[in-house]
Specification:
This protein has 86 residues and is mainly beta. The protein has a domain of 49 residues. The chain is 6% helix and 30% strand. The longest helix has 5 residues. It is elongated and about 55 Å long.
């Protein structure tokens, strides 16, 4: 099993001939979210960085940084996805 970003999966074609390759079946989906609270936290350090899918991300300078942020990542196995027969 390998994980592919959606833009990689959608763009699977032979670069030389332009022929679309046979795409592997999608059997699971990885989902990630950054969630923040509705009220600002006073007297705390600014939270400017977080990790999603193992990559460090930094908040844009226009975003209010005084909110508590949590990340959530999960993988969902699609039901009956492995039963596909070619």
């Amino acid at each position: 099993m390998m994980y592919l970003p959606s833009h990689t999966y959608n763009g699977m074609e032979d670069k030389d001939s332009g022929v679309t390759l046979v795409k592997p079946p999608i059997v699971s989906v990885k989902i990630a979210m950054v969630i923040h609270g509705s009220t600002a936290i006073l007297g705390s350090d600014d939270q400017t960085e977080f990790k999603l899918f193992g990559q460090k991300n930094t908040l844009d300078s226009t975003v209010t940084k005084k909110h508590m942020r949590s990340t959530y990542e999960t993988s969902v196995l699609l039901r009956n996805a492995r039963v596909i027969d070619y």
